[in-house]
Amino acid sequence: MWPSCSFHITLLALGALASTTSSQQVPLAIANTTSNKVPTDAGGDVVAGFMPLQQSPASIFFVNYNQQNAMQLRHSMEGKLRNIRNVEMRVAKIQEIFDSMHMTSANGGGGAPVRQTVNNNESGLANSQLQRDLQLFSSRLGKKLQKATHVVLELRELLRYNLTKVWQYSYDDEDEEESELDLEMEMEDLHARNTASPSTDHMQLYLNSQIESCQPDDYDTEVDAISGSSSSAQSIHYNKQQIQILNYLKSDDGRATFLNENNARSLAVNGYISDQLIQLKRRLSRSEADKSNSKPSSGNHFKHIYFLSNSDGASASLHFRQLYVSAIKQKYVLLLIDVGSALNSELFDLTKSFVHEMLQLLEDTDKVSLVTVSSEASFMSLEAFPAEAGHGIYSATRGHKEEIISYINNLSRAQALTNHSLGFEYAFDLLHRLQQSGMINTADQPVEFVYVTRGLLTNLSDAMAVLRVVAEGQRRLKAPVIINTCAVVLDEKRIMYEKQFLSDVATQNYTKYEIDVTSWWPRAGQQATQLAGRFFVLSKLHAETSLPQTSSRIFGQLFQEHYLTDTLEVHPPVVDADSGDVLVSITHAVPPYGVVGVNLYLADLLEDLLNYPSAAASSAKQGGSGYAFLLDRSTGNTLAHPAFPRPLIQRETSYPVNIAYLENATDFSSLIRERLLHEENGNATADVYVGKQRLQRTYHWQSVLGFYVLCLVSNGGDSLRNASNTGSQRYNLKDTVSNYEPGYYGESMDLLYHRLDLNQAGSGQPKICRYFRQMATLDAPTLFLSAAAFESPFGFLHNNRPRTQLRHVESIMAYLRDSSGLLANPGLRPSIRHEVSVLYQAMQQLRRRHQDTRGSLRSHIIRRYMASVSGVLQLYPGCLLSSSYDPTRRPWFRQALAQPGKIVSTAPYLDAGGAGYIITIAHTIFEGKAHALHSVQQDRPIGVVALDVPYAFYYRLILEGTPLCQLPHMKCLIFEHEGYLLAHPSMLQPTTATRNQRRPHEHLTHKESYLANDVLNHGQLVRKLGCASYQNRTLQRFYAFNTSLATILGNVVHGERTKYAIALIRGSNLFAAVLNSSCDGGAFCPCSTIDRECLNCKRMDQTDCECPCECPMVGDSSSPSSLAYYANYTHQFPYCPPPSEHFIALPPTTQLLSALPSCPGSAGTCDAYSTQRECLGVMGCEWCQQDVEGNSFSTAFCASQASCFNGVLASLTPYGELDELELLAAHNPQREQHAYSAFGPLGGAIIVLAMVIGFAIYCYRHNLDAQTQEQFYVDSVQEENYGLPLSRFNFDDCKAHDEPPLGGGYDHAAAQRQLMNAADISPYHVSSGSSYRRPPNGESDHGYSTMTPHEDSSDQQCFTLAEPLLLHDKRHSKSDTMSISTSISSPTNRQQSSTQPNTHPYLSNQPTSKTERYKQQVQATPSPSRDRDRSCVYGQTTLPLEADESRPHYILAPVTVHRHMETAES
Predict the structure, then answer these.
(1) pLDDT > 70: what percent of the chain?
(2) Residue 810 in contact with residue 308, Cβ under 8 Å?
(3) Closest to 422 (Cα-Cα) out of 486, 471, 481, 375
(4) What are the start-end ranges of the H helices in 967-1040?
(5) Per residue in 1142-1151, pLDDT tens?
(6) Among residues 333, 430, 328, 415, which one has the least CA distance to residue 378?
(7) Which end of the chain has fewer CB within 10 Å, C or N?
(8) Predicted local confidence at residue 380, as pLDDT
(9) Partner residues linked to 1345 by β-bridges
């Protein structure tokens, strides 16, 4: 391909002779081993990696020169990291302490030794232990489920057999004036109806949905109060209001009866149900309290106990309404939607919202169809699912529902009036066709026909025509269907004709219009009233309450015994929107009254599995030495697996994941999976291929009450843990420990529990201070015990209440300090006490070093800490942490265990403690051995020692140790094993609207795209890999660099421009690169500035440069081929590990942090640094270079980070509410409290009122001018643009100058707000900002960034076009290259945009949900169908006209810039 030369032949020979290492494989077998393998220095890869290039003598000189520079940089960094490891982290000393105190792991530690030779006896012992674990875990889980099912069945029996007796007693109070004969007749009629068909009597009885929270009394009950569950009186009052509205709008036909929940029967029955729920709750609380006396760590397993009434349609949160509707099985919903001109935009939006509410209530086994009608009618056809689109019926899976919602959102109103008859004709044609094909059965299947309309008629005679069409349609069906109508109105005024018309349609009042239906209705044994539907009113005024309640109440007439299941139902896990808990519901239908059930915590059900065999085992590698998973036996879907995050940090309900997607063992999908789902217990062994190596994997399973299947997996003959561990690294300890600090066990151990907000008993109260944004102390290190350190992890988290926590903390610390052994264990695992003591001795080393004033890095190291694989954490300075924090799931812990014996650095992330963007440096500690000789390959790591440094710390080390990096046109940078930058020259620049927007998560492809393009040709250095994230149905693409690289690499293909050299910093996961960037070229890596969707999801080539991105998995779980479809991903890619828990918010405290004094050393010395180099990398300090408007200071200065975050004075920080207080503290630390002035509030209010009035007048005048100027312009643009979206351009390349359609703006800065949200979000995921609106066709709108090395240049220009497109040219580009939507700004617009204030470029500390890939914004377009084949996107270009300079005029032209165009040098 390229001409060869002698220089590269020499390099080839040297590369082939380099020391070879075994390949570092991605765990789990894959089909294409060359495309998803971590690169190594194997000879074959070297030959494939180096591509010969004809070079001039000058280029050879630059290559050699750069290699020397890279060696110098590497040597300098290796020395500094060695110093950090030995001096600052005290690794050798701590390892010595572990050896002397025989510190080992009690639960398996961080993975099994590498080359195990297991004989038959050891294998038998392991299997017997595994069987014991399986029996123990399944027994515990079974008891929890059995208790829940007993409660549900008890509630069911109470309602079925006792409500009739309550009615009998209530009749005496209600009907005192009735004669005794009438009362007896009515009671007999009541009993007859109750025994034969009780559904007819319950219509006269109004029952309230009642939800009892099982939280202890000292829990905050605001969430339950919101849902109406904490007080039955509140629920009754709410229902009373709603009934008054419904009665007001109810039809006037004689058949309808007005509901009155204040009658004696309703009050008595509701009171009885409420009493029974409360008594049951108290009985459960007493049983838990009795258990807690013997086992303090046990917790209450119930979240809610509830009765969901059919009368009010389960008027509670969405989750409860879903439970109520799900009792009606295999229902078919037909939606007839009016899109005529009678609906204005508000009513049309109300209609869409109602359909959205209804779709949310459906489950996977339901079916749905949709017909729209105006002057014409049409069926919903989704191009994404062509097989279903041919029939017009779709299963209500999550993927289908998201596409339907997208379709609904993209509907537009027609310009003609609605032809109601045509709509019903189309709807009944669809029903008849589906019935003929056998897809539905109206005789046996519940059918919900809903007509949502404004109800306007062109003339009054149309009502008869509509009823005739309905009668003819019903006659063709096997059994007639009930029709429900919904009138969409702006307020609650009486709508005379519409109300009468829609009531007649709902009740199918054929008699009124003299329509003969005797040929098909009523049938034998049926009454005419059984066909009557219900009429609802959807009011804009009461949309918040009427929409959700109507969406569930509309199913009320289908709540009949023959449509309901008569068994217990265990529902899939759901994230509760109010509390954030992941809940599993167990329900049972009680016809005709409603549904009873309980909510359980998923974390409680999984507590034995989440830490099996330990949290660290699965973090070292996928699967570890053994793991566990839990299945739903009826569906095969997975509830727990090493691929899943903890339920505690889930922020949204995930897609259902079949176990076949996650397990790629041979014959698993075809044989083992079926045995798992059908056999009560058993075991099976299968082969797993990791690369070319074959392993054996054994599955042991046990069914749990027929609901779940619990499976424990053991891996026999584990593969190499990490290919980078090539040699035996031994620590020869010269010194021996003669004595330890006092307090091995005893009162003198000055260790504090991390709950500094509680007044802990002990030897004196510590001095509490504010360390950035944390409550902290410098008096002693603090101890944090994660949930895994307790016998009942869920019990620890659940009982973490203010009233009981202090007593719990005191008992824990007393037990840990007890030297007599007389105190009882407060629920800790047996090994924890010893681990705390060993870690305390190690922390004394780190504490002394942190307090040493002679330390060269004292102003740069934020905190030091140490954690064990059991979840014990000690840190100094001691500080308060969240109870949900788990050190073993943090990125620094997982990466350290994955690369034992190396000093590991994480990619930058936001520190929850308030120190800004930080990097964690970590190193493993091995289990203790008497001979004190350790091998990386043979020894098990059981602890990690770590420290935090500021974001720019590594670049400071570069400047201190490598002067050549300060030369002009010379760039030195450091990146970690996935390509994320830890040091780059851009760290000297502030973050603005056009620069460094991705900070801190900046990748090599973002900043140095030219280097990234060339590096991809080094097969032995880097590979593009993929992993499958089934929970959000995406395929993640990322880079993996070879951490056992032995050579220095340079240019391969692009050799005549930028020269570079890359070398591994040995003993770490870092790489050093030196670039001679005097002649940067125009190469670029396409990166979306909108979301993370890849440029070309159909191709993943090794040499195609692209930023880390993701592709959606196109498929649907309802189709028969879905299992094979997703299994194809499983065979090609491993599953993605659960995302690291980067950001865990700190708990709220009763003390105001701003009232605490600052800890010494945390802030206040920034003004002592006069140069940027001195200020760089100092904790709590930033080099302040410009203001929020983008104006640079003539003289920059070093300031507090709180006042100048990211180098911008008075900019907002990612932390939120305390920013103003911190700014005041930073500018005036010695501020005094002034006396209160009574005039202050009054005067301030007057001034604010005057400003508001003035601003309103200004906006009004400005708006009038703008409307006269741009109204015709905007409308003409929309018409001539064929309905295509006006795309935005990459914000890193030029400033936006105009607003997108529908307002809001593509705020690229807002896209960074979601960066550090842990929820739930993949390790490579960057959410888009809330202001971004996707195009109406649902496709990703890519603002692809060029990302050239000119990115940080101040004279950067946008791309220009050589051949503009015409507005009326409908031809699309047929080029194979992807097109890039581009916006060109004029100098006039540049000047205007530069004066705009900076938008908030950072995230809030409030938890937000993860960006939903398929959720669409409401936007009307001429066509609702998705255009998937469009190969280019039109962009918006604004050019100034020179004809009239008095008033700006603009013209709009769509332009397209192709991907391979190079930059034009300005």
Answers:
(1) 65
(2) no
(3) 375
(4) 1004-1007, 1009-1015
(5) 777 777 765 6
(6) 430
(7) N
(8) 94
(9) 1087
What are the DSSP calls for 346-389, one per residue? HHHHHHHHHHHHHHHT--TT-EEEEEEESSSEEE---TT-HHHH
Q: Greatest CA span in the chain, whole angstroms?
A: 117
Q: Do residues 1180 and 1226 make contact, with C-beta atoms less than 8 angstroms apart?
A: no
- Reduced to 3 states, what is the DSSP secondary structure of residue 699? strand
Task: Please list, residue by residue across 1084-1105, b when 16 or more beta carbons sit within 10 angstroms of its beta carbon and e when fewer do.
Answer: bbbbbbbbbbbbbbeebeeeeb
Q: List for the chain the helix, strand, coil content (%; round to 5).
A: 35, 15, 50
The answer to whether 531 and 521 have CB atoms below 8 angstroms apart is yes
Instruction: List b or e across 1150-1183, with b for residues whose CB sees 16 or more CB atoms inside 10 angstroms.
Output: eeebeebebbebbbeebeebeebeebbbbbbbbb
Question: Which among 1336, 1340, 1337, 1305 has a CA at the least distance from the CA of 1411?
Answer: 1340
Tell me the pLDDT tens digit for each residue of 486-512. Answer: 999 887 666 778 889 999 999 999 999
Q: Decide which of 1324 and 919 is more confident.
A: 919
The band of 704, judged by pLDDT with boundaries at 50, 70 and 90, is very high
Phi-psi region of 1190 (alpha: psi -120 to 50; beta: other; left: phi over 0): left
Angle of CA points 708, 710, 711, to nearest 5°: 140
Q: How far is CA 1441 from the centre of its chain?
A: 47
Q: Would you state the structure tokens that stand for residue 623, as one six-digit string?
A: 């699967």
- Kindly give the interhelix angle for 120-174 and 180-196, rounded to the nearest 10 degrees: 160
Helix/strand/coil for 144: helix
Q: Would strands 708-716 and 693-704 be described as parallel, antiparallel, or unpaired?
A: antiparallel
Question: pLDDT tier at 522 (50, 70, 90 boundaries)?
Answer: confident
CA 822 to mean position of chain CA atoms:
46
Produce one character per residue of 514-547: b if its CB has 16 or more CB atoms within 10 Å, e if not. eeebeeebeeeeeeeeebbbbbbbbbbebeeebb
DSSP for 1132-1164, please give it: HSPBPPPPP----PPPP-SS-GGGSPBPTTSSS
DSSP 1362: S
User: How many whole angstroms separate alpha carbon 652 and alpha carbon 1250?
Assistant: 44
In whole angstroms, give the CA distance from residue 250 to residue 244.
10
Residues in the chain: 1466
Dump the DSSP string for 287-348. HHHHHHHH-TT----EEEEEEEETTTT--S-HHHHHHHHHTB-S-EEEEEEE-STTS-HHHH
Contact 454, 338 (CB under 8 A): yes
Whether the per-residue pLDDT at 163 is higher than 60: the answer is yes
Instruction: Tell me if residue 180 falls in helix, strand or coil.
Output: helix
**Please, what is the average pLDDT of the chain?**
74
Of 415-424, 581-590, 1418-1427, least confident by mean pLDDT is 1418-1427
Q: Which amino acid is at 784?
A: F
- Assess contact for 591 and 564: CB atoms under 8 A: yes
Q: pTM of the predicted model, to two decimals?
A: 0.76
